[in-house]
Automatic annotation (TrEMBL):
<dbReference type="InterPro" id="IPR032675">
    <property type="entry name" value="LRR_dom_sf"/>
</dbReference>
<dbReference type="InterPro" id="IPR025875">
    <property type="entry name" value="Leu-rich_rpt_4"/>
</dbReference>
<dbReference type="GO" id="GO:0005930">
    <property type="term" value="C:axoneme"/>
</dbReference>
<keyword id="KW-0677">Repeat</keyword>
<dbReference type="InterPro" id="IPR050576">
    <property type="entry name" value="Cilia_flagella_integrity"/>
</dbReference>
<dbReference type="InterPro" id="IPR001611">
    <property type="entry name" value="Leu-rich_rpt"/>
</dbReference>
<dbReference type="Pfam" id="PF12799">
    <property type="entry name" value="LRR_4"/>
</dbReference>
<protein>
    <recommendedName>
        <fullName>Flagellar associated protein</fullName>
    </recommendedName>
</protein>
<keyword id="KW-0433">Leucine-rich repeat</keyword>
Amino acid sequence: MAGLERCINLVELNLSNNQITKIEGLEGLTQLRRLVLGSNKLTRLEPAQSFAGLAKLEALWLQDNKLGPGLDALGLPELGAALPALRTLCLQNIDRSAPNPVCRAEGYKHALLAALPGLCNLDGERSPAALNYAALAAEYDAFRAAPPAPKQVALPNPAPWLAGVSMELPPGGGPAEAEVQQRHGKVVKSLDECEMLVHVLREESAKFRQQLADKRAEQQQA
């Protein structure tokens, strides 16, 4: 990975599909925020050496490498010390495709979240650091205490648009009647979908309230 010494203002670097076996030569890229190293031949991370100088790195993609099979291949907990600003880490895709062998190690997710407490996104999924439960609870309490007034929607007068339009169907039905029936079917389908959406939103709201209650109970016990 030579030839990057003068790219001191580089913010994003994509080195995927380059047969890379060792991460080196990046210490001068002090402004780097995003680094893509997917589909290479990395088998082990050495954070203190590999990521020296990358204190501002926020996102690291390492899918489709050979890291593993054990968690020691990730260089924990040195990884957190070397990359204090890291918020996104991907060792496999969100659909679990292109995984590294380490992704199948026992305690994989727990170990990474413990070593990287500021991580907000692991393998495409939001991590606990991305959820501020205290702020969410305060916002929910404020909403319940003073819910916003319902908005008054004024429907426009349809008369100008209907002027001169006949609502009668021609004798014997025909294409016009078929079109009306088709539109009626679409309206009924849309109403059914809206009703289903309301039901789903109610269920999700109930789950969210329960999560807040559980989190509060945990904080009080602590």
